[in-house]
Amino acid sequence: MSKKLILVLNCGSSSLKFSILDPISKKIYIFGIVECLFLKKTKLKLNIFSKLYIKFLDDYTNHNDALDFVLNFLKEKYLKYFKRIHGIGHRVVHGGINITQSVVINDKIILEIEKSSVFAPLHNPANLIGIKLSYKFFPNLRKKNVAVFDTSFYSSLPKIAYLYAIPYKFYKKYKIKRYGAHGISHNYVMKQSSYILKKKKSSLNIISCHLGNGSSVTAIKNGKSIDTSMGLTPLEGLVMGTRSGDLDPAIIFFMHKKIGISLDKIEEILTKKSGFLGISEKSSDCRFLEKNFNKNKKEKLAIEIFCYRLAKYISSYSILMDNRLDAIIFTGGIGENSQLIRKIVISKLSLLGFYLDNNLNNTIKTTNNYFINKKNSRSILVIPTNEELFIALETYKLIKLIK
Ligand code: ADP
């Protein structure tokens, strides 16, 4: 057992996830989440050695107070593990145009993260709070904080994939381009698939589908991302829990000019009231929609539109692969768990040589297997994502280099 543990902090827009793990054995000692920040009934769920603790924090707790509470709590109750923390890995959503890989945090990096907040206003400021509190609780580890960016996996996108067809000056002057999201997850499952398929990363061609509350698809050729469905922000692309994904931008003008809805309200509609929730008019939760798939037309429609859009993305990305597509990968809460969604999506892809084995699809959770395809099919894999582990490994790798 290594003496050196890594603390991973993932400050999301409305939640805060943390874990303490051993980067060598990959064992997770403690992990937890604070949910419903800024809402009534902010809740801390803590999993320590597979025992679950739930505690309600003050109503409307913010990131700073929640993380302060968590770190004090861990220090008080689990000092033994706290003292073994050797480095801190921070998930940072947006690295802007200049940061293309994981980095040890210093003042310059903090400035870059601040500057990139314009593209991720709900995430980057929260990530900075995580960094500030790490400095406070671990003053001796100030030089051992590492930022792992979701956007860095997309630094390999070619210009034809990341540029929007709007006047060029908006790219040059304002850096408007496709940045992508979920890069840590796509990168992690790509590495796992290289191991599972026994193929070198440098010759791996896959389409990775991260399907959760937010969903994205990434085309990966020779181990590098070459296109992805999320754009300047995580609003573009697939249908999501509450986000619309792709739409005709003229809908925004129509809503504003003809219906008289304010721009702030339209933003709220497209980010918080659309997707599964908007179509079903009931829920953003895929489990709920699945339960009612055969009972209620709108729930069925929401799932069918989601699958239709995803299948279109997969098939369009397949032509980027130059005749060799090694696998489709499903990950994320929906990708890992929804037999129904995988079944509907794959049923549309026989032209590309993908055929689902229904039995494997239905039993994948209970086996150690990853494959859900028939024998005569290209590979279809279900790989649980593990962003925390990826961040911990990146952190360990970088701080090892520090004298
Ligand atoms: P986030 O994007 O917030 O990280 P997750 O990756 O946890 O979200 O995914 C959440 C989504 O996964 C929800 O829509 C949830 O309904 C769905 N999900 C979780 N378990 C299942 C399941 N067993 N069957 C279908 N969908 C599921």
Structural write-up:
The chain is of the alpha/beta class and 403 residues long. It has 2 domains: 5-155, ATPase, nucleotide binding domain (Nucleotidyltransferase, domain 5), CATH 3.30.420.40; 200-382, Nucleotidyltransferase, domain 5 (2-Layer Sandwich). 38% of the residues lie in helices and 19% in strands. It has helices spanning 63-77, 79-82, 107-115, 124-137, 159-162, 169-172, 183-196, 250-258, 263-272, 275-280, 286-291, 297-318, 332-337, 339-347, 358-363, 387-400, and strands at residues 5-11, 16-21, 28-35, 43-48, 51-56, 85-92, 103-104, 145-149, 206-211, 215-221, 224-228, 327-331, 379-382. Helix 1 (63-77) runs parallel beside helix 4 (124-137) and helix 12 crosses helix 14 (339-347). It binds adenosine-5'-diphosphate.
What is the domain total for the residues?
A: 2
Order of helical and strand elements: EEEEEHHEEHHEHHHEEEHHHHHEHHHEH
CATH C-level of the largest domain? Alpha Beta
Largest sheet data? 8 strands, mixed
Q: From the structure provided, what is the oligomeric state, counting identical versus distinct chains?
A: single chain
> Globular, elongated, flat, extended or rod-shaped: what is the shape?
globular
Helix content: 25-40%
CATH topology call of the largest domain: Nucleotidyltransferase, domain 5
Compute the average pLDDT: 94
Structural class based on helices, strands and sheet pairing: alpha/beta
How many β-strand stretches? Answer: 13
The N- to C-terminal Cα distance equals 22 Å
Rg, alpha carbons: 21 Å
Bound molecules: adenosine-5'-diphosphate
- Beta-strand content estimate: 15-25%
Instruction: Count up the helices.
Output: 16
What is the CATH architecture annotation of the largest domain? 2-Layer Sandwich
CATH superfamily of the largest domain: ATPase, nucleotide binding domain
Runs with pLDDT <50, length 5+? Answer: none
Strand arrangement across the biggest beta sheet: 5-4-3-2-1-6-8-7
